[in-house]
């Protein structure tokens, strides 16, 4: 047997409403009709192509194989469409076989494994050929089904994954060696790749006409950057080349000045900038660039110098508008403005290379500033290291790329070390969270198992025993891996206990139960003594239960009461709403809740946004007590993607929240997502579009590549 992981086809389940699932089924029906029409028309073109291939064969062996394939195609095509369409509609059984037993792990024999390899080889070209139309359909269908974004491609029941499996199943009707069946499948797949984009285009048009747009679930809950607008310009490469041309003009001017005996304009301006931009290091605003450009020596500076300074100034203005930028991040950026503006005049690669070390450093500083503990304002280790790195660059009289390389290496080494420390500190937290989640699941299963027994009228003593002693017994058994037979025994013992106090028993039944009561109590006591429950938890309820049973078996009336089981166990079912200390973290567990109207489009987007988070994403949480907002990073997500843990290591705070509760918080503006993308390069590209000199066609655009100075 061969092991294969993660090959199941996702069915139409999850957070989708009935109307959404029905819409997806209607699209599947439309898709099937398009495919049926395609199958009715494709036989002749494929057969002609096969005969042309046989005629153009370069050897007699190839010609014989091609002719044999043509004959097989003609003789078996009539049986192929029905089998193919059946598997397109229903999916392929083996791809989701025995999910309950194996989860995401499947076992296949060698023949099935070969079929899966061929299906993967076929689905790749289909996906590539479908391109943007398939991507748009994946987004629409994934949004309708409420799937996490990572499952959009494989959760689409009209996607190449299902088509390729159906194609392989359809080819099993071909009575020929495996190599011929493979060739048959590839021939059909090649023709399907030509026509599939048109089919997807029709499905997308129908969904768009019904108001189903491409999901933009994450962006809706992110605070937008006012400078970037809708995105970077399309002519980024041209603007970068134009920025290089500015440096070429600067070099020409400098050579002319030196040739005529004039002093260097660059060194005089760099010295002026070093003095004029000194104040932001102390957190105060320097003079605006517009004022500086009217002062000597910038008032007489050449146009390339003034343009480069305007670019750098505009980028920093945009950086300071970054949403959710902590106060320390603003101070650090203000201190970095001086060395970077000086670097902009001397390093032609700064605005021409997205991976320039200065750009990477500024993005890293912005990201690292989110780690800082806002409550102590610079008193944590991250703040201290960031201040040291930035102040060294700020004091540099002649900053160059090499200095930024050193600063970037120092910061990356430090953040990697903090990541390791955080991972070690989070280990006990995550172990506790996982254990609590496992215990909660086991508690729910144990409660559901005994709920029918507790639903009717019972003496209070019996109800207390089941609640405080027997449900924890079953919960512990589930956690330890008890199987159905073992759980059946425990449930059977509880059912026998309940039967002892049933007032509807006949005299003969009471006598029979009374004869076995001693053995039953001994059996129950052995189970309790073997468990981890302290004796003080179960001994008193068990002692109180025995007289009630005896009175019931003697036919004497006993007081019974019918009550809902969940109302008797609030402490077991409701999560803690107050912070608790786990290791170094103070953990806030958000009570589980869901958006008010799960069928609402905005609620769907919130659920999808909460379910699509990945480790490393940042979220800002509002506090109910009026305290400042806290920014925390996602460090753990459950396997099902329905529960998250966020931490702020420097603040020693953590938040445990379900996806549904986070979605409700997003809708109520109690939480918001933080943008993932870096800022500097996008801001630089946007700034270049607003510089008239860079859009002027008169600026020469060099074609030679430029390397980053190290």
From TrEMBL:
InterPro entries given for it? DUF1631
Give the source's domain of life in one word: Bacteria
- Identification of the protein by name: DUF1631 family protein
What organism does the record attribute this protein to? Niveibacterium umoris
């Amino acid at each position: 047997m061969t092991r294969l992981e993660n090959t199941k086809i996702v069915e139409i389940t999850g957070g989708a409403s009935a109307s959404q699932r029905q819409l997806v089924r209607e699209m599947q029906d439309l898709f099937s009709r398009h495919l049926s029409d395609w199958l009715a028309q494709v036989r002749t073109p494929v057969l002609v192509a096969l005969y042309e291939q046989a005629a153009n064969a370069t050897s007699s062996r190839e010609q014989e194989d091609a002719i044999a394939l043509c004959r097989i195609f003609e003789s078996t095509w009539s049986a192929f469409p029905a089998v193919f369409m059946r598997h397109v509609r229903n999916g392929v059984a083996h791809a989701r076989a025995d999910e309950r037993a194996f989860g995401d792990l499947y076992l296949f024999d060698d023949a099935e494994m070969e079929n899966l390899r061929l299906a993967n080889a076929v689905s790749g070209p289909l996906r590539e050929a479908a391109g943007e139309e398939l991507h748009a359909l994946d987004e629409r269908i994934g949004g309708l089904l409420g799937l996490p974004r990572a499952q959009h491609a494989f959760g689409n029941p009209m996607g190449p994954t299902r088509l390729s499996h159906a194609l392989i199943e359809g080819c099993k009707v071909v009575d020929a060696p495996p190599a011929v069946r493979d060739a048959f499948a590839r021939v059909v797949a090649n023709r399907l790749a030509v026509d599939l984009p048109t089919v997807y285009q029709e499905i997308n048009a129908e969904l768009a006409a019904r108001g189903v747009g491409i999901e933009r679930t994450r962006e809706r809950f992110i605070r937008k950057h006012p400078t970037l607008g809708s995105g970077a310009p399309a002519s980024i490469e041209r603007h970068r080349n134009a920025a290089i041309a500015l440096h070429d003009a600067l070099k020409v001017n400098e050579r002319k000045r030196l040739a005529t005996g004039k002093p260097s304009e660059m060194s005089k301006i760099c010295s002026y900038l070093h003095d004029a931009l000194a104040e932001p290091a102390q957190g105060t605003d320097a003079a605006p660039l517009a004022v500086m450009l009217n002062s000597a020596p910038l008032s007489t500076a050449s146009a390339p110098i003034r343009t480069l300074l305007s670019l750098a100034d505009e980028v920093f203005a945009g950086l300071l508008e970054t949403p959710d930028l902590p106060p320390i991040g603003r101070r650090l950026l203000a201190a970095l403005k001086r060395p970077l503006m000086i670097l902009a005049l001397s390093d032609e690669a700064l605005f021409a290379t997205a991976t320039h070390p200065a750009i990477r450093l500024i993005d890293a500083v912005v990201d690292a500033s989110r780690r800082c503990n806002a409550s102590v304002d610079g008193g944590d280790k991250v703040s201290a290291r960031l201040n040291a790195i930035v102040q060294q660059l700020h004091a540099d009289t002649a900053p160059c790329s090499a200095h930024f390389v050193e600063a970037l290496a120092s910061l990356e080494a430090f953040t990697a070390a903090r990541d390791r420390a955080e991972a070690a500190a989070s280990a006990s937290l995550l172990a506790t969270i996982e254990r609590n989640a496992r215990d909660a699941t086991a508690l729910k299963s144990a409660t559901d198992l005994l709920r029918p027994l507790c639903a009717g009228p019972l003496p209070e003593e019996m109800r207390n025993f089941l609640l405080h002693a027997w449900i924890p017994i079953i919960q512990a058994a589930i956690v330890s891996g008890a199987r159905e037979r073992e759980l059946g025994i425990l449930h059977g013992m509880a059912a026998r206990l309940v039967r002892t106090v049933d007032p509807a028993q006949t005299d003969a039944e009471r006598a029979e139960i009374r004869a076995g009561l001693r053995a039953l109590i001994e059996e129950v006591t052995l189970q309790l003594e073997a468990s981890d429950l302290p004796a003080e938890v179960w001994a008193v309820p068990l002692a109180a239960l025995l007289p009630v049973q005896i009175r019931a078996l003697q036919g004497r009336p006993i007081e019974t009461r019918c009550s809902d089981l969940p109302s008797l166990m609030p402490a077991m079912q409701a999560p803690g709403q107050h912070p608790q200390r786990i290791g170094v973290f103070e953990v806030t567990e958000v009570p589980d809740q869901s958006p008010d109207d799960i069928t609402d489009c905005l609620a769907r987007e919130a659920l999808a946004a909460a379910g699509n988070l990945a480790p490393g994403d940042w979220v800002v949480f509002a506090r109910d007590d009026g305290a400042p907002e806290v920014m925390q990073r996602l460090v753990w997500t459950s396997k099902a993607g329905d529960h998250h843990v966020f931490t702020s290591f420097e603040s020693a705070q953590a938040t445990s929240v379900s996806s549904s509760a986070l979605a409700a918080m997003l809708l109520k503006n109690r939480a918001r997502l933080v943008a993932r993308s870096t800022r500097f390069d996008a801001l630089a590209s946007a700034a270049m579009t607003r510089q008239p000199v860079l859009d002027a066609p008169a600026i020469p655009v060099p074609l030679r590549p430029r390397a980053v100075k190290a």
